[in-house]
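Would you kindly consider the sequence and fold I have copied below?
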Amino acid sequence: MKENKNWNGKHIAISRVDSIGDVLLTLPITAWLKEQFPTCRITFICRNYTAPIVKYYAAIDDIVKADDLFTLSKKEQADAIESLGIDAVVHVFPKKELAKLFKKAKVPMRIGTSHRMFHLSTCNVRPNFTRKKSPLHESQLNFELLRPFGLTEIPTFEQVNTYTSHFAIEKQELPEEFETLLKKKYVVLHPKSQGSAREWPIEKYTQLAVELIGNGYEVVFTGTEPEGKQFRNLIPVVDKCHDSTGKLTIDQLIWLIKNASALVACSTGPLHIAGFMDVKAIGLFSPRIPIHPGRWRPLGKHSTALVYDPNCEKCAAKKECDCISDISVESVFNEILR
């Protein structure tokens, strides 16, 4: 694979057009690029709803919102990309439409995994590596795509962890109920994952809420409005329990998480936000490959991952298993206090 070690002054695009957690775990590669090539320019291509996350990462210079881009005609899309003067694009999340677009826009270096057939005709640099069977964390695996920029060794998990320091948010105004909460001690509980992960039962979240309230904490349940409809009638109806589902923007949610004592969730976006904010992020996981914590645990100095049985035989055999439900309320509560 041909390497070019002088990318100072060049314009590099990073494309990751999927969910919040995936985007957050991609951001460290931009910090590495800035370390190696301080005068390079980095544009991040993402979904509209993840753009508020990306804008708080210091290594990013510009953002292109893919949803807005795709409202244009094919020619307008190509013209828009061509006008940016991009020298290289890294397709971290393979998407055929974008791969074809960057080729049409004549971007000189187009990097994408060799494991996508459409990259054979759209990408001219195709690193060969596998994600599913790798022991590496997702954030480390993203670095495999930087080998054309001179990367010779994948950073350790601890090294990648240092790149969370580039994430910072300015103060946000919250609805009154949650603004007053900022002066108190509270824990964020995020029960759902929009189907992206195995979930801990809502009944255990409510038990945990009761336990926390009884020990001097306030509790905030977070999620989208549709998620709130699934569980809000089950959460404790007391003054110290707050339902924020459907009431906060992403910016406000980040600020709420930043000021929390801890956050509890399965493998989903807010868990990774908490990790980047150096909040105690407690992730609840299945040990099943490839959704295990070795691949998806949150970054962050105060993050941790809990499983019920790391050696679960059903998970190892890839049989249907719900052992995440057996993680005890007591173990999560103790982790919050630890």
User: Anything to note?
Assistant: The chain is about 35% helix and 15% strand. The chain has two domains: 11-166, 176-337.
